[in-house]
Design brief:
alpha/beta; single chain; seven-stranded mixed β-sheet; Dehydroquinate synthase-like, alpha domain; Rossmann fold; 13 helices
Length: about 350
Amino acid sequence: MTSILVDAERSYSVILTSSWKEELAQLIQGRTRVAVIISESFKPDLEGLLGLESEIHVFDVPDGEEAKNVATLNKLWNWLGAAGFTRSDLIVGLGGGAITDLAGFTAASWLRGLDWIAVPTSLAGMVDASVGGKTGINSEYGKNLIGAFHSPSAVIIDTNFLETLSDRDFAAGMAEVIKCGFIADSEILTLAASHSIESLRKTPEAIAEIIHRAVSVKAQFVSSDFKESFAREALNYGHTLGHAIEIFAKYQLRHGEAVSIGLVYAAELAAARGLISTDELVLHRSLLSRYQLPISFDRQAWQKLAPLLALDKKARGNTIRFVALSGIGSTVRLEDLTSTELDAAYERISS
């Protein structure tokens, strides 16, 4: 077992282990009530937890982004109320990124803040959603527009969960991993370039290293800027267009697939400004394609995507802001992009 410290509004550990139940059992000892939030299609083996002295409640919600809405949140609030949850009780989010987003916001909003633990089961959840304390649900106007900053008490990462993922879901998680490589840790890019999906999934030590490196990148940014006033925005590299594509596609694309397209778009914007080289732009395309991730999107969609950019959480007033690279490992914020630049970059990634 290894751990990575995140020092935000509270300090907590991201625990990398091969025995998630044993770690979780230790952490919930002494809690009167524990709510475990899972998705409907996920049937985890909870043996070893249900026999504890704590009163364990298992609440299942719709799969994926379908769970992240006010209706589901209201059901969870009612379940917690009926079960008598108090401020000394605990919520556990056991699932992918959508579950950890929802569980964290449920914890933030019930009684103005319960402790919660994230147990991510997808690669995207492990390296992104579970770490950092950004919790939330979706609005019809955008993704994660309703939420709160509320750090978990702990994050438990068990890579054995990854064996159950499809190649598509594994690849979607790699988009977030590769993003971390571009913004802060070039060794991640080297590791990604030396594998394919097939070879990486057969190399547990390589998976463990990229997760450790990606989580360390996120912990670094979160610890320096918990409420995303400036530095932490680097973690949103690729997400401005990515979130717009998710909304446009009605969440039929995986989050990582949309972010992959957004990464190439942001790289096109930076290359056009002379901030990155042609080789660095090509590296975006080649690495993401290597993991069978999309790097282009429908040309006809732009008229509907462009207005959605203004709903991005980084926007201020009427200004759309993009995170861009000024070289691998260095980010800048672009706030003066013209509609001509935005249109031209999309033209270059459209299919």
